[in-house]
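Lecture 7 notes: from sequence to structure.

We start with a single chain of 600 residues. Read the sequence below before looking at the structure.
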Amino acid sequence: MAELILSPIAGKILEGLGSADVKEIALFWGVNDDLDQLNETISTIKSVLLDAEEKQINSHQVRNWLRRLGGVVDDADNLMDEFNTEALRQRVMPAGSETVKHTLRLNGCSGLRELPRDMKKLVNLRHLEIDRCSGLTHMPRGLSQLTNLQTLSTYILSESNDVVMINGGELKELVCLNNLKGELEILNLGHENDTARDYESANLKEKQYLRYLALKWISDDEGTEAPVGYEKSLDALQPHLNLQELALWNYGGVKISSWLSSLTNMVNLTLQSCEKCQHLVPLNQFPRLEKLELNFLPCLEYINGEEEDLLLSSTIVLPSLRELRLRDLPNLKGWWREVVSGELLPCFPPCLSTLEIRNCPQLSCMPLYPHLEGRLDLINTRLKPLEQTVLVLESRKCSTSTTGTEIPTTPSSSFSSLSKLTSLTISEIGEDLQCLPEWFKSLTCLKKLEIQECSKLKDLSPGIQHLTSLEDLEIRNCEELEVMIPLKNNGRLRYLRLIGSHKLASLPGGLQHLTSLRRLLISDWESLETIPEWIGNLNSLESLHLLNCPKLRALPEGIRSLTCLKTLWIWDCPMLLKRCQRQIGEDWPKIAHIPDLSLR
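Now the structure, written as tokens:
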């Protein structure tokens, strides 16, 4: 109902009408009496709207009347925007302040629709901070006169040509602002035929002190001519060679501008929602690149798509790379268009600490990552690159990289591929992963393992038996899993989460040897009927969560032996909850001593 939306708006207007700034401006404009009358009118409308909400009035005539009231509320809301803008102008530009104001911080002013039109008078302004001002629709004319400006976090182009014609600043307002430093985000870029000339006049390539540049286009439906317009607009936005970080959002071109290859100081590159992009520039142009993110590029098939000679296997790809994220690239087949033998695959550098590959179901060939130290997430993708990383390296002899880093790769070497990896997530693997392979033995430092949505997985052996450093394990929605936790020799496992459907009617016997376990969560296990008596052997257990296990009938006597247990949650387990009713349930005496007890 419309009145459900209008009532809080009316309340917001009343709050604004009572502010000191608005009252002062009304007095200055000579509309104080009109303001009082507006306050009284909006108060009456709010009361009517609240009454309509309470009574749930469905009369057609009344609802039409409420819609007309809505028009009054909208007009009042627009008037409040004008008051707020004038209040800002009065604070920013009191009489005689034009020559002394250096910094203006408006971060988080989400209700602000526009900046004062006479901001160009603040000729000594050095810092204009307008992050998270989501209500701003455009920039004022005349910003080009603020030649001392060093900080301009965001520049918003108007989506309406009418606003530009009346009072909106175009991108060419940036032409003289060559002292800008730090970060600049340009929003609402277009791809029409006449935009490239305006964008080029902004003279971004002369802004040598900018470190970060984000270019965000308006996301809309385009015709067949649109990619060319996007490409011309990006060509016109060439930044200075000193730029270190670049992000492109909603770019609709087929290819990336060639000037990107000249940014050899680049340390951070992000491409987001570039739906028609098929060609990237060669990444070997970026020796300092530390972070690369490619998100939702549905037409991209190869990252290095241009034909080029593959370097020898000792080559390090992107020698400074620390973080690589490939997300939502459904047609990505490989790093190179040319087919590469596993024996010739180059490697990512030893400094790589985070690798995420998500929703890249066709990706089968990429550089190896034997030195990866931190986190590896493989979600809805293929395991082949991981397998190659482990097995190919074992078959090579020691070699020296072009950076002088020795890569020992033979089985006799003290180095083992992925021996420094600490966290691994495997989810929605489309291949026939029926067990964790033997080569998991290389993961000697792995502390956290999450296996999710692997529908054909039946056994965690033999791989899991080698994970002697494992501290945190999650198994989620692996419904064919029959042999679950053969972890007899693991004395470090602290956290275990078993979530989703499993065929087993009882907890696997291997759990009884996990005497170091502190937290155990069992959730959405529809076939679970019993918890064995041996649970009393888990003498370090501090927290037990039993959630949505509809067939779970009772708690064992062994639960009394868990002297460290401080938290027990039993949720959505109807049969068990009946036995655990406070004071009267059959199993109540077994759990009454637990301090943090939640039954629901």
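The two ends are 34 Å apart (CA to CA). Keep this in mind for problem set 3.
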